[in-house]
Amino acid sequence: MGKSPFLNHIRQELRLRGYSMRTEKTYLQWIKRYIYFHRLTHPAQMGSVEVRAFLTWLANEQNVAVNTQKTALNALAFLYQKVLHIELGDLDFQHARQYRRLPVVLTPAEVGLILAQLDERNQLIFSLLYGSGLRITECLRLRIQDIGLTDGSITVRNGKGNKDRKTVLGQRLHEPLKNQIQQALVIQAEDNQQGYGPSLPNALGKKYPNAFRQPAWMFLFPSSGLCKHPISGELCRHHLHDSVPRKALKVALAKTNLHHKRVSCHTFRHSFATQLLEAGRDIRTVQELLGHSDVRTTQIYTHVIGQHFAGTRSPLDNL
C-alpha cells in the first residue's frame, strides 16, 4: 500500500508545502491507519462521519494521549482539505482524556552523574540538550553553520511547528564542539573525494550542486553509514539516528542510582527550563528559548519548582 499512486500523491503534496520528512512519515502512517480502519475504503468516498468515528475510536478504544489524537486529526485534516479539497466541518468527536502530568526534571548534580557515564560524543549531545534546551531531533539535525561560537548561540532550523529560533550555547562546550566539528569535517572531506556528502534539505542540491562540499552544510553529528536521499535517491550521509543516543542514555542510567526517576532525552530539556526559572529568568525568555508558541506551555515548569504557590506556608510549619 505504501507504493500506491494515491499515497504517492499525498507525499508529493506534503513535499510541495515544505513539510518535514518526519511529519510526512507520521501523516502517511495515520492516513493508512484511517483507511485500514474503514476496511480499505477510499477516503474520497468518506467524510466527516468516518473521520469522527475514527477519532472517537482512538479515544475510547485505543486510549491514546491527547497529542496523539491531535496528530491523527491534523493528518486527516491535511488529507481532506489540501489533497481531496473536501471540507469536514464540525466533527464533534470524542476527545481523548487529557491528564496534566508534571515533567520529570534532574538536578545539576544528577545531570553531571549521567554525563560522566557517557562517551565523548554522547556527552556532548546530552550537554546540548541540557545546556541549550534542545529536543533530541533538533540537536542531531544541527549543521556546522548553526553553531555560533563567537556569539555563544545555537540556531535551531525548522524546529517543531516549522519554526527557526536561537538559543544559548554554554561556554564550556566550545572546545568539545570545536573537536566535534573537526571530526565531522574529516568525514565530509573523505565523502567528498567519493563524490557525495551530507544530505541537503528540499531541492537545495539541485540549486547549488556543490553545496555538499561546503563545511557549513555538514552535520555536526553525522551518521556512521551512507544512505539514499529520500527525495533525490542520491547517496549521501544523514545525521545520526536518534536511537543511538537513546540507547546510550539507557546504558548510562543503568550505571547510576537514579532508578527512582523516569529519565528520557526530553528530561534534559525539561531540566534546562526549570533551572532557568529557578535562576530567576523571565518566563517569556524561557518560552522563546524553548520555542513554545504559547506561554501556557512554558508555565508547566512553574509548577515543577513550586512558583504557583510562592509564599504559601505549610500548616505543619505553624505548629
Describe, in short, the structure shown.
Helix content is 48%, strand content 4%. The chain is built from 14 helices and 5 strands.
Structure explained in plain terms:
- The chain is 48% helix and 4% strand.
- The protein has helices at 5-16, 21-37, 48-60, 66-83, 108-115, 120-132, 136-140, 174-193, 204-207, 243-254, 265-278, 283-290, 295-298, 300-304, and strands spanning 147-148, 153-156, 165-168, 227-228, 235-236.
- It has a three-stranded antiparallel beta sheet. The chain has a two-stranded antiparallel ribbon with strand order 4-5.
Q: How does the SSE layout of this entry go?
A:
Layout: H1 5-16, H2 21-37, H3 48-60, H4 66-83, H5 108-115, H6 120-132, H7 136-140, E1 147-148, E2 153-156, E3 165-168, H8 174-193, H9 204-207, E4 227-228, E5 235-236, H10 243-254, H11 265-278, H12 283-290, H13 295-298, H14 300-304
Helix pairs in contact: 1-2, 2-4, 3-4, 6-11
Q: What form results from the Cα inertia axes? A: globular
User: Structural class of the helices, strands and pairings?
Assistant: mainly alpha
Strand content: under 5%
Element-level helix/strand string: HHHHHHHEEEHHEEHHHHH
Q: Nearest-angstrom radius of gyration?
A: 23 Å
Number of beta strands: 5
Fraction of helical residues? 40-55%
Q: Kindly state the mean pLDDT as a whole number? A: 90
- Read across the widest sheet, the strand sequence of neighbours is 1-2-3
Distance between the termini: 69 Å
Low-pLDDT parts are none
Biggest β-sheet description: 3 strands, antiparallel
Q: Can you count the helices?
A: 14
